[in-house]
User: Fold these one by one.
Assistant:
Number 1:
Amino acid sequence: MRNRMTRMAAAIIACTGTLFFGSLLQSAVAQDTANLPYMNPKLSPEQRAADLVRRMTLAEKATQMQNNSAALVDETIVLTFLLQKIPEPPASRSSSPSAGP
């Protein structure tokens, strides 16, 4: 019974230590992001963009290229506009001289 309690206490301490270490590591990483060049407003937009794109993975870049936004114009409006009958040009005048006054 005593051996079981010792193992249980050791497991609780190990889990607590792991959680504590994980929270310390996460806060250290979160503080480091404040010093990243793409977050620095003193740099030019070109420098910030170049830094950010360099840090992005290929999957993140591909996601940025997708356009999942809703259409701004209804497709039926576009089709109606494109399929409208184009007016015929006015009839051309005959080449014969018109009778003048």
Number 2:
Amino acid sequence: MHSTLIVARMAPESADSVANLFADFDSGEMPDLMGTRRRELFHYRGLYFHLQDFDDDHGGTAIESAKTHPSFVRISADLKAFIEAYDRRPGGRRRTRWRTASITGQHRKSGNRGRMCHVG
């Protein structure tokens, strides 16, 4: 499985508009074309976090291939009204994964998976 994380700036009052854009996007063919397994959107103190999981390890390639698809072009344009780059330097959107773990055994059975964590 491959995951991507986008960090950007977003006014908290834009959360519903952004969620609606992705609800429309995800109701079409794009999740299947890209191999998107799950998308999660978070906001915290003016920041936007977009976590996307893919069916296989080629998620980055799938995103690059999708960038010319009309639905991808449209949502990218629509999001510009709500989302602002966090880092405008070349490569500034890329995040470095520094730890990955597969959790098995007793910890996985504890029922803590899937709960939302509130910060602050």
Number 3:
Amino acid sequence: MFGVTSHPHIRSWTSIETSAASATEGWVRKGPPQTVELNGQEFLLFRGLRSEADVSSFARTHGLLGLSAAAWDQERMQANLRPTWARALTMQPVRYRPEAEPVADWLRQAGLMDMALGLWGVFGSPQARRALLATCTRLRSGPKGDSLAHQAELAASSASWQVRSVLGGAAGAGLRARVETAWSKDLGASTVVFRPSSWAEYRRAGRVIHLRLRLELAPQGISELLVDRLVDPWLERVRASLKFEEGRIIPSYTLPEDLLGILWIQFANGMLASVDPRVCAWERCPGPPSRPGVFLWRWGRTQTGTKHRDAMYCHPKCQHAATVERSRKSPGSLQRPADP
């Protein structure tokens, strides 16, 4: 079904015709056809994929990402220019097995999405920018040096969800972070550089093109990495035109039909929704990929399109669990503990 998410800024899909998929032995394979309803926040689940089991669970509901279609479309539009997400692929999609995608490519794409979410949070928070810089300066101090495993461990130990997403997502995507300049009075002068740790070489005209994603820790610098390098390549695939229908000239849109493109349009619509990402108030929220964890509005859709922007919990299950927990702690209560 073609439609729009609740009060969108960019047209997208509210449901997709896809195929249930499953992941085994490093590949996500296409399964039987199905229709999936979308509520506009599926990208917040996708960003949490960190294992083959996570990938299989997400693919079972949402199907394949459509990496081949996305890569072909963007290379057709941008001759000789591969966007960051495409350079992260472990192999050219033409080498994929029939109706299958590598789990490793799923994990890297999920990492880029998580990194983008963290950058969105860092954009509006000077405190998060300071926390990110402080964490990055510790990357070489541990016994593992500046390895991706060390980066992921430091990210997981941070109290800032933005730091966890930026550095943890980057590690999941195979990007190693390093502070390029020392701390100065002007925070904007401090720059974190992300370099591929395990990506294949990219050559153009016989020359190796080295990728450096620069993150200047100031609003403009953050937006350049977030918008220009991570989000805009997906929005360039949304094309507006006019068409003649039933005696009238009306607007027409060409939209990506691959799941990964749809998820990035959801992300862009979220950025334009005038709602800052926030952490679920349920302290035992399992987070992604089972629940958003960091969210914009309460999970689910209503007939009126209400987004519950003042919600404290990312999912009705978290709200229910928190209510049960409060009841259990009240005097005289004999209820069992709430399930997370």
Number 4:
Amino acid sequence: MYEQLELDRFWAGRLAVSREGTRWPHILQTLVCYRLIDPGSEWRLHRLWFEQSAMAGLLGADYAPAEKNALYCCLDKLLAHKAALFTHLRSAGKSCSQPALKCCCTI
């Protein structure tokens, strides 16, 4: 769903890897998948969900995408792009042929 909504393309220019090596796109993908699959708190994602999921394998990453402070920092970084994200999702919903995605994008 993440790729079908072209969220990877949307965030590519807005959420790059930091100079320190923080892979913000991986953290964001982890947060999105967590919200869609098994919603809960960031603390639960950090303490329990990430270890029990296949996210590390799918991302080719270690435990870094589930580091507690990184989760909250990533959410903070997203706020500046909220309006652009909603515009993108509306556009993606209009051009979407799959009912599940169309429903998801009618904001």
